[in-house]
Description:
There is one protein chain. By secondary structure, the chain is α/β, with parallel strands linked by helices. The protein is built from 11 helices and 11 strands. The relative contact order is 0.13. The mean pLDDT is 95.
Amino acid sequence: MAGVSAAVASPVVVRDDRAVEHRFDAPPQRAVSLLPSLTEAVCAIGACARLVGTDRYSNWPSSVVALPKLGGLDDAVVERIVGLRPDVVLAASSTRALARLESLGLKVLRFDSDSHEQVRSTLDRLGRLFGAAPAAHAAWKAVEADMVQAAELVPLALRGRKVYFEADATPYAAGEASFVGQTLQRLHLRNIAPAALGAFPRLSPEFVVQAQPQVILAARRNATQMMARPGWQQLPALQGGQVCAFDEAAYELLIRPGPRMGEAAKLMAACLAALPPAGPTPR
């Protein structure tokens, strides 16, 4: 993929998700990312070499693992970030330390990644920020191509089925309003958690039982315990073996918004295609 242009040195203006305009005399040369999806986006547009530090969870691509780790959403290490002298700090809007970082004179761009549209917008703005607009366009084009391929992999017998994507064993679900929910819709599945409940709603176990999901996607550590939950033995998905259980690394990919969402869709679709034959869809 084409990366950052070495010849670009003109001023840059980027508006973040607080609607704040940030002006730079030239594309930043030293960047800190405080969110894994932002780290991946920077690398996807060919600007990985500009990163001088990341949050503790950034682990892709492998080249970022050795970078200084600077905490997370709730415990970013302000002193270490300042000591790295970044031209820009990239962070989620919910990161706690942002006001403190700004008070110390750092430029902080805040991004939201709750939907496919926001992920695309983030890629576009990072492309402008680092002088890599063509690479950002190519990165999103690759996501879309993977989504189309993934949708084609889903067996006809599964299309239109009710799906429960477990985000946490509490249980929390990835609802229709989340980026995961949008991917599930692209895969022709019907989410049991409507958009009105929010992106990642906490559901009661009884809600899931009443919804009777026909397909379940979850982390393997949680999927193996579902039969023991009261009433869940009667779920069509569990009775029919229509469960996609993912190991830790694969599940991490599924719940991380960013330039690998297309890969996540293909991973889900491949698992769906490998499930036992499904019975007729109830009407």
